[in-house]
Design goal:
Number of helices: 5
Order of helices and strands: EHEHEHEHEHE
Distance between the termini: 61 Å
Helix content: 25-40%
CATH topology: Rossmann fold
Structural class: alpha/beta
CATH superfamily: Response regulator
Number of strands: 6
Shape: globular
């Protein structure tokens, strides 16, 4: 099997969605474990030593930021990708400051999560949250040169 991924989220539907994305990616990745809170993720990271961890930020017992800190204190080479609903520059900055190698907003998961995991596994970083327009798909639509349907009455 290929690289091993530890998934950490307190919502079953999110875990199943990530599992589906990983399985359909065509990559030789293995989901080696699932944790449902930050404390479990710290323990599982120590025991399983995954190649990358996908951690939610908002979880019970211990949040993802605190878990990332604890995991990285035990293993400074751990590869952590924070996966969250929080699309804010402050959270991206906090993720970087604790040593996370990536940050993906859940609303962009279908488009960005597999690329983010791949980048982090390759030793790169991926911070695709909070207004990041680095992908071509995120570019604003070009202005249409077609005439207004009602003619010049609405033209400027």
């Amino acid at each position: 099997m290929g690289e091993r991924i530890l998934l950490v989220d307190d919502h079953e539907v999110i875990l199943e969605g990530i599992r589906t994305l990983v399985e359909r990616s065509g990559r030789e990745w293995e989901i080696c474990g699932i944790a449902r809170n930050g404390q479990e993720s710290v323990e599982m990271a120590r025991v399983l030593k995954p190649d990358v961890m996908v951690l939610d930020i908002s979880m019970p017992v211990m949040n993802g930021i605190e878990a990332a800190k604890a995991i990285l204190q035990a293993d400074k080479h751990a590869k952590i990708l924070l996966f969250t609903m929080h699309d804010s520059e402050r959270m991206v900055s906090e993720a970087k400051s604790v040593g996370a190698r990536g940050y993906v907003v859940k609303s962009q998961a279908a488009r960005s999560l597999i690329r983010a995991i791949s980048d982090v596994l390759a030793g790169k970083t991926f911070f695709g949250g909070a207004g990041d327009n680095s992908d071509a798909d995120d570019a604003p639509p070009s202005k249409s040169t077609a005439p207004s349907p009602r003619g010049s009455r609405f033209s400027s």
